[in-house]
């Protein structure tokens, strides 16, 4: 059952709680770096306008992991999805806009601390080698120099300071205990390997901005974050979504958004979308990206199956990119123009996913008092940030033809693959 939170209540919304048909509703957001956050914003924009009976800034429970913790914390603070889009994508509001510099400032203090440790490490390693040059090789003697390598390239304290400024504005809070909604931000304890949920009793005294910093501290890119004498790194190290945080609290419907899926290069090539038929052509960065995505997604698939078996009566709805989406796999988001394009792409894909799954999702969502707005989903004139055009009645709109042709082509490819898989062996 949901735990009581009598002390909670934001300055603008003192402890308000919405009664929902079917029980509490939650949102769980996975990671994926700045790319993941941009994709999730586009997906949420599509969900927000396509679902009637739900406001994603007024849910009962929010769970954020890694990049998803940014958005979960903003939504739990009552910041609406279009406002998040304006801040993170369009850069509206000079003092609140999220720029790449927030993520890419060099970790100078970390570099300096490691540099100071280098001379004594070199001296000890040299002494160890000279003392027994034949019994200990040079590699073994100088292995301790690895301690002088910085634990992160970029300074994630800028993330903490940015969010602290955003969440301490009037009507918002940087304190878990003052939120009107439950918020759980998951990080990994570096020394024990255990997942820690900030926002739970005993962990809710930590500032939300600091918890986001810890949850998003991807090893190698950002240094571990010290909280109460312990060091924390990215929350996705153990699980991809941590939707069980919401399910354990009694959520009966959990919307999950995961931007990280492995890429199917051969399927993309069949549909005329792929850059490479074989990913090895893309070099080491592409190979590492595919490896990371495959590991992350396999855990997610196992987790979703476990949720559906363990939490009877609860509905878990997952939204993620298609496996053949080359735009998602090869994108680079370090620029506002690229972010807008990626966000719009995620918006379009999520709308298409909702329409394709309408027969499955319609009855499921209706159990929770939520209705699919088919008129919105079938209006192909809609674009992210652009007012919808009104098509002439009875006349096919010309801008719908390329989309319809692409849908037909993709359907035929999927059907051919399904038939090949289902055909019995001779």
Briefly say what this structure is.
Helices cover 43% and strands 10% of the residues.
Sum up the structure in keywords.
single chain; 426 residues; alpha/beta; eight-stranded mixed β-sheet; two-stranded antiparallel ribbon; 15 helices; 10 strands; 43% helix; globular; disordered N terminus
Rounded Rg: 24 Å
Strand content: 5-15%
Number of strands: 10
Largest beta-sheet characterization? 8 strands, mixed
| Count of runs of 4 or more consecutive helical residues | 15
Order of SSEs? EHEEHHHHHEEHEEHEHHEHHHEHH
Helix content: 40-55%
Describe this structure in words.
- The chain has 426 residues and is of the alpha/beta class.
- Helix content is 43%, strand content 10%.
- The protein is built from 15 helices and ten strands.
- It has helices at 33-50, 67-76, 81-90, 108-131, 138-141, 157-167, 208-215, 244-248, 265-270, 284-310, 326-329, 336-356, 358-366, 374-377, 400-422, and strands spanning 25-29, 51-52, 61-65, 182-189, 195-198, 225-227, 230-233, 253-257, 315-319, 371-372.
- Strands 1, 3, 4, 5, 6, 7, 8 and 9 form an eight-stranded mixed β-sheet that branches. It has a two-stranded antiparallel sheet with strand order 2-10.
- Strand 6 (225-227) and strand 7 form a beta hairpin.
- Helix 1 (33-50) packs across helix 12 (336-356) and helix 2 (67-76) runs antiparallel to helix 7 (208-215).
- The longest helix has 27 residues, at 284-310.
- It starts with 24 loop residues before the first strand and ends with a helix.
- Mean pLDDT is 80; it is low at 1-17 and 387-405.
